[in-house]
Write a structure and sequence with these properties.
single chain; 149 residues; 5-stranded mixed sheet; 5 strands; 41% helix
């Protein structure tokens, strides 16, 4: 399953209002709840938080990919958030994170989960792509940028 198949305008938010790592996680989870993708936000938060305790999912170059496996979803589910000013997400390079991809998968979906993580890593290697997404003014604009890639 390609990321483009699961990305919809209603699971993208720019700008995020969060100012901290834990707020970002909660805000992205709320986006999925509001979109009707999940029901129990606390179970999802617990799963993502537990994964974060193993090591930050804040990567380099302003990218963070909080993710978890949870029985709260039946299929690969994602929310995208943009914080143009950056948020301290305890990234590996010590820099603020600006692009957030929350990825959830059912416990039995290791393959699609890993494929999605790889696809996110691939598309975010492009500095031009990341810059365009960060500068986008709306969820629709971000969706169009992703579809172009």
């Amino acid at each position: 399953m390609a990321l483009i198949d699961i990305i919809q305008e209603n699971i993208i938010k720019t700008p995020l209002v969060s100012k901290s790592k834990l707020e970002v996680i909660r805000e992205l989870i709320q986006i999925l709840k509001d979109a009707g993708k999940i029901a129990n936000t606390e179970n999802v938060y617990d799963a993502v938080y537990k994964r974060e305790t193993l090591g930050s999912t804040g990567l380099a170059n302003g990218i963070a990919v909080p993710h978890a496996k949870t029985s709260e979803v039946d299929t690969l589910t994602m929310a995208i958030g943009v914080a143009p000013e950056g948020i301290d997400y305890e990234a590996l390079d010590g820099q603020p994170s600006r692009l957030f991809f929350l990825l959830l998968a059912a416990p039995s979906q290791s393959g699609p989960h890993i494929e999605a993580l790889a696809e996110i890593a691939s598309i975010t290697k492009s500095e031009a792509f990341c810059r365009m997404v960060i500068q986008a003014k709306s969820a629709r604009e971000i969706l169009n940028i992703i579809k172009m890639d």
